[in-house]
Amino acid sequence: MAEKISDLRRTWEFFWRSWTIQATWNYERQMNMGFMYGIAPTLERLYPDKNDPEQVARKKEAYERSMAFYNCTPQTSSFVLGLVSSMEEKYARDRENFNPDTINTVKTSLMGPLSGIGDSFFQGTVRIIAFGLGISLAQQGSVLGPILAILLSFLPAWLVTWYGGKLGYQMGEKYLSKLQEGNLMEQVLHVCSIVGVMVIGAMVASMIGIVTPIKFEATNLVLQDVLNSILPQMIPLALTAGMYWMIKHKFSTGKMLAICIVGGIVFNALGIFA
Asked: I need a labelling partner for 10 at 20 to 30 A (CA). Which of 90, 152, 230, 240 fits?
C-alpha cells in the first residue's frame, strides 16, 4: 500500500528536486539522473517493502525507466515530474491495463516544447529584463539594483516551478482514467511517439554541427551544398544513425567515445569533416 501524503508535501518535492535536476548532468543521458532523483520519493512510496521480491523488482524496473535520456528546462521539469509521478502511480495500481511505455513516450514528447518555452522565457526574456533594470539602478548607485535583478529573475521561476509540478500531477490524475477508456491511450501514445521522434530529429539537426569542407576547384563544386540540396543535415543524420547502430549492437560507451574521438581527429586531419 502506497503511503498517503499531502498535496503540499508532494508539490514541494517536485519543486525542490526540479531545481537540482542538473546537478548530475552528463554527456550520455544529460539530466536523467536528476530526473530519477526527482521521481525517487514517489517510487519509494509506491514500492515500500524491501523484503518483498516482487516490489523490489517493480521498483528496479521503475528506476531503470526513469534513467532514460532527459533534457528539459529545470523550471518546467516540475510539470514533467508531476505528470510522470501520476502515471507511475496509475501503473502501480493497474499494471494489466496500463502500458508503461507510455510514461517515457510522454516524457520525451514534452522535452522539446517545454524546453523551447522555458529557455526562451526564462533565459531569453525574464533574465534580460531583470538584469537590464538591475544594472540601470546599480549604475545610479542604488543597492536595489542587484536585489531587484535577483527577485525579478527568480520570482517567475519559483511560481512556474511550484504550480507546474502541482498542475502536472493533477492533470495526470484527472485525465489518465479517461484516456484509458476505449483506445484513447493508444492514440495518445502514437501521437507522442511521433512528437518524440520529431524532437530527436530537431536535436540532431541543431546540436550536431559537422559539415564537410570538400570543394572541387575545377568545377567550383562545394560538396556540402550538394548534400544540403539532397537532404539538409545529411552528415549529422548519418553519424547519428551510426551511433544508433553501435548502441543496438551493444557497443560500450567507452568504445563509442573512442571511435568518435579518433574518427573526428582522423577525418578532420584528412579534410573530410570540419
From this structure: 152
Same domain for 175 and 241? no
Other residues' Cβ atoms within 10 Å of the Cβ of residue 111 = 24
DSSP symbol at 125: I
Q: 242 and 113 in one domain?
A: no
Residue bearing cell 574521438: 261
Rounded CA gap, 176 and 164, in Å? 18
Query: Is 22:34 a contact under the CB 8 Å cutoff?
Result: yes
DSSP code at position 272: S
pTM, entire model: 0.71
Is 167 a member of any domain? yes
- What CA–CA distance (Å, rounded) separates 4 from 10? 10
Rounded to whole angstroms, the Cα distance separating 134 from 142 reads: 9
- Structural domain containing residue 50: 7-192
Strand-pairing partners, residue 147, are: none
Is the CB of residue 11 less than 8 Å from the CB of residue 167? no
In a domain, 85, yes or no: yes
142 shares a domain with 33: yes
The domain total for the chain is 2
Classify residue 22: in a domain, yes or no.
yes
192-230 in b/e form (b: 16+ CB < 10 A) is bbebbeebeeebbeeeeeeebebeeeeeeeeeeeebeee
